[in-house]
Amino acid sequence: MFIAAVTTGARNGFGVFVLPMSEEFEWNRTTISVAAGIGWLMNGVTQPFIGHLFDKFNSRKVVLISLLIAGLATAGLSLTFHYLFLVFLFSFVLSTAMSGASIGTLGPLLARWFVKRRTFVLGLVASGTSIGGLILIPFSAYLVELFSWRASWIALGAIVIFLALPLGFLFIRNSPAQMGLLPDGDPEPPTDGTAAPPARRRGMFEVDQWRQSFRSPPIWNLSAAYTVCGVTVGIISIHFVPYAQEQVGVSLRMAGLIFGILTGLNVMGAIGGGWLADRFGRKNVLGTVYAVRGIAYLVLIGGLLSIDAIFPGGGEVGYGGVSAAADPSGPFRVDKFTIPFIGSPGVASLWFFAILAGFSWIASVPITTSLTAEVYGLRALATISGISFLCHQVGAFVSIILAGLLYDWTGSYLLPFALAGSLLVPASIAAYTINEKKYSVRYQTVQAGVAAD
User: Fold this and answer.
1) What are the transmembrane regions (predicted)?
2) Which residue from 84, 219, 240, 386 could staple onto 48, CB 3.0 to 4.6 Å apart?
């Protein structure tokens, strides 16, 4: 949980660095978006390969080596002097290391340890990313304003190296068997022959090789929905803070705080979503998560269309690079107003988006991992999850770069946010239509076969 907090929290704080780094090096929004987008893509491309190493070899070493490289690369970003240096260190080195030290590998590791409350436990570790965002993103913004963006990168890297790495070294183990246990902490059965481990049911689509999973429908539903998840998470992770600063007009510290609150609320979303999924079925809760996120995007787009977004300062249109006096008698002109204790409609939309998105942001991760484990088994879980995560990161890659291009073209985030939000409708449908009771081993009443753990 702590490892997930400091690694993902540091990466998701990249949006805090967009404006200060762009101003120092005179990069436009597309330029820095390409660097960020390549990073998300590389994180996805390398995830299946790291997952394969995880499945076949020593998973503990995979996590620890990845943590060391991630910490050094994060601190090394403070030395950025050229765009290609940023691309190499962030987009390739750090993003590859993140494949071995994030919930993409920590989830399959925990799936070995827990069965009875698997989704709840996966929700706990996923909530670590939320806690990391809640603390590290505002912390990063504070350091940028107090010192510089270089000092902030050093601090984030030091946290990974001096806190997360030693913690992983002391406590991570490959499997319960290394501690003489069965999953869920159950003791080993007696060795005198009086008892034998119960036969484990084998699911309809359980596989021994990851390639076999693509012959069945659930992986396509899950991967398609996960691609949209990447689209809607990636674009906000990189562009939310710049949008809040430039188009809504809040300070960097306030934008970082709101985004930190968004990620902090993931704690309740991830744990609550896991708790609900353990009781009411994975696919129903997963579909609802995407639907709630869709509503959050509607709120955000509403803020973009508010009086403060269309008429910055209450009097001029600064849209698409065109500035013209607003006609007070025009059909879209309304009196400027504020919402008590929150502020203008644009600022209010940031807070309401943070609340709704916060409950649905990371909740999709443990549910997707748990459902994948119950349909396809544990033998190739890290590899299969890595492939699904690749789809997630491809979606993020496209949305991050497209948002930068459209912003430079139109001067607004309206179009990219609207496109991303609209995709949540088919994502929700894809999740709801998974026939969980037929495919998941949880609902097997007649064994399709037995397997030894």
Assistant:
1) 62-79, 85-107, 119-139, 151-172, 219-242, 254-277, 289-311, 350-368, 380-407, 413-434
2) 386
